[in-house]
């Protein structure tokens, strides 16, 4: 979810004493230029600019900015606009989750998977940004997912998931390779939810970028993303919160996307589960969007002339890659050798958390750290 091409990367330092991981050192560089760029500008200018600045989750970023601006003005977007926004975010989320999964599993090297992903990307692209995806586009998405072996019902419960794992699809075959690593990185999940929004809005307003780059809620650093959204799903309950469960949580959401898109089109789904916003005070609005990597926040504060006085973005990666956050909880206390096999295992777990930038994993001894 970087705002510009460049050298933005996360370095995950695995600090060990003996073979035991005692802490994670996570360094990151976050682009904060948008904050300065937005100051004094009109809301319309920034809302139009934001999706063009982000290489990943551009629709989610654009929706968050538009929702935050409306909330700051004390207005509400029409149900038709919100439905179009939710549809765009859901379609983009499905593509991002699928692309990340293929890259993690090495499926990007398969011409068949690459071709199918490209077709899905075309089908998921709105032909009319002012309306939800139409029935024909949703049907193409459903057909594309079925071609990948991700049919509706494949992840309805643990039994269905086990049948899917035993199927002869390439996606199932790629996932079977990780069954032996099902428990790696398992930890309790504390989901970031809408109940946290108000406090987060207050912190963003008062602390600005210092909170946005390292957020915590009175010492609590919750998790956000597909696993957090599906923490109580029967498949996640059966397979756990380790590396394998994280990948299954993605598949649960991917396979469910066509039906969600149809529900948005019919108007019989609560779009607040995907997109929501609220005014926080005079001229201040907060938006939250559930994108592929988790709950994305935008905060906009307007000055007396209606120009942007403050613009903050809090990306999901900041929670999941907090030095005391979900990734750290998944790894601290585990036993890891300084071997290539264990380094690759950690890399797969980091990829399952799906940072919005590239990453490097380095093992360090405590005495050297």
Characteristic terms for this protein:
alpha+beta, 4-stranded antiparallel sheet, 15% strand, 3-stranded mixed sheet
Polypeptide structure, described:
The protein has 16 helices and seven strands. It is of the alpha+beta class and 369 residues long. Residues 1-6 have low confidence and may be disordered. The protein has helices at residues 33-38, 43-53, 58-72, 79-105, 111-123, 135-147, 158-165, 170-176, 197-207, 209-213, 226-229, 234-239, 243-266, 316-320, 326-331, 340-353; strands at 9-17, 20-28, 275-281, 284-291, 294-302, 308-314, 358-365. Helix 2 packs antiparallel against helix 3, helix 4 packs antiparallel against helix 13 and helix 6 (135-147) runs antiparallel to helix 13. It has a four-stranded antiparallel sheet, sandwiched between helices. Strands 2-1-7 form a three-stranded mixed sheet, with helices on one face.
């Amino acid at each position: 979810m970087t705002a510009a091409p460049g050298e933005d990367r996360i370095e995950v330092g695995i600090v060990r004493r003996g073979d035991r991981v005692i802490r994670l050192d996570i360094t990151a560089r976050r682009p904060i230029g948008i904050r300065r760029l937005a100051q004094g500008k009109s809301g319309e200018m920034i809302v139009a600019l934001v999706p063009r600045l982000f290489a990943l989750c551009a629709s989610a970023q654009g929706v968050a900015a538009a929702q935050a601006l409306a909330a700051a003005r004390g207005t509400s977007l029409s149900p038709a606009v919100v439905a179009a926004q939710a549809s765009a975010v859901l379609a983009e989320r499905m593509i991002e989750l699928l692309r990340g999964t293929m890259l993690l599993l090495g499926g990007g090297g398969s011409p068949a998977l690459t071709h199918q992903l490209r077709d899905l990307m075309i089908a998921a692209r709105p032909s009319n940004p002012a309306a939800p995806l139409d029935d024909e586009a949703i049907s193409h998405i459903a057909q594309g997912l079925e071609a990948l072996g991700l049919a509706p019902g494949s992840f309805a419960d643990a039994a269905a998931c086990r049948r899917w794992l035993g199927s002869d699809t390439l996606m199932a075959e790629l996932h079977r390779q990780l069954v032996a690593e099902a428990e790696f990185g398992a930890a309790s999940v504390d989901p970031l939810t809408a109940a946290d929004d108000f406090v987060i809005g207050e912190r963003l307003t008062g602390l600005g970028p210092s909170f946005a780059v390292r957020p915590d809620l009175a010492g609590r650093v919750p998790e956000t993303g597909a696993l957090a959204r599906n923490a109580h799903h029967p498949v996640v309950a059966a397979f756990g919160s380790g590396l394998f469960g994280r990948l299954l949580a993605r598949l649960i959401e991917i396979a469910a996307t066509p039906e969600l898109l149809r529900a948005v089109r019919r108007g019989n789904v609560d779009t607040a589960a995907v997109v929501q916003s609220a005014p926080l005070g005079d001229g201040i609005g907060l938006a939250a969007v559930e994108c592929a990597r988790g709950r994305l926040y935008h905060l906009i504060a307007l000055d007396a002339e209606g120009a942007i006085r403050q613009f903050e973005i809090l990306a999901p990666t900041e929670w999941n890659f907090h030095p005391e956050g979900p990734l750290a909880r998944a790894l601290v206390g585990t036993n890891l050798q300084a071997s290539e096999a264990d380094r690759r295992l950690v890399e797969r777990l980091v990829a399952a958390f799906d940072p919005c930038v590239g990453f490097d994993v380095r093992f360090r001894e405590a005495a050297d750290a």
